[in-house]
Amino acid sequence: MKVLFIGGTGTISTAVSELAVKKGIDLFLLNRGNRGEFFPEGATLIRGDIRNIETIHKILDDYKFDVVVDWVAFTPDHIEADIGLFKGKIGQYIFISSASAYQRPPAHYLVDESTPLSNPYWQYSRDKIACEQVLMEEYRKSGFPCTIVRPSYTYGKTMIPFIFNSREYRWTLVDRIRKGKKIIVPGDGTSLWTLTHNTDFAKGFTGLIGNLQSIGHAFHITSDEVLTWDQIAYIIGDAVGAKPNIIHIPSEFIGVFSPEHIGGLLGDKSVSVIFDNSKIKRFVPGFTATVPFSEGIKGTVDWYESNPDRCAVDEEFTKLCDRIITAYEGAIRDGS
pTM higher than 0.85, yes or no? Predict the structure, then answer.
């Protein structure tokens, strides 16, 4: 089976790429070739920028694929461009959506694929919803063979996952923990969350590649382990050998100082979400997530510490945390 990944070297897709090759898939990656460290051995690079559609049309003209997976489509125009590229030429198209597209806040604590799609807090999620709508309309109209996958918070060796951390320099959280500085947990720390290791995600995802029964369907693929954000903080602390000094601050207060974080907090991680994975287990028999967070995060910390250059700290984010904490503690003292 010949498969094209558009992207394929990100946190989630790297693990899927590696497993796909191991399973004997003839894998091609269309990307700009900027992340060679994560390019899977045995795959073939097609160098190009998917946003340059005219050039990509010419590049892909000599190839024929059974399945195409787009890891980097974020807006409806990206989807429309893909439909123009692949309509009538492939057996399956898999779109990477997001579990943050599900109703926020959820009307029921348990989320399955029938949960409504609605997120008034985060444009990223609304764009993913709009992408799904374009795809499903094309599926109903012309039979475009799409499958939709909605990852939730998925991490691997290159990502230290947390509810409030620097996006670019993930080691910043560890630096604060080890120095005894307070780390911010939005809310009261008791909201429930699921973190999924990318190798577990890959097991479910590769079972959908070429799975014609999955066409027209949407799936999320997550661990069944459920933790509070305080528990997650303490597990990270255990992995780095220091007890975290947690301060709980309302998401809305954080948003006053950092409006760009509101979408990812109120529209995703501040809300308790538990996933029902029955559907992916039906379509991919034998799938189960086996990497507990306590094990996965140790591998992540080891990867960072194996190269000191990876342990960079985001000084601007550190200053932001300090400003928020100082202002919040001052407001508490003043009785505001």
Answer: yes
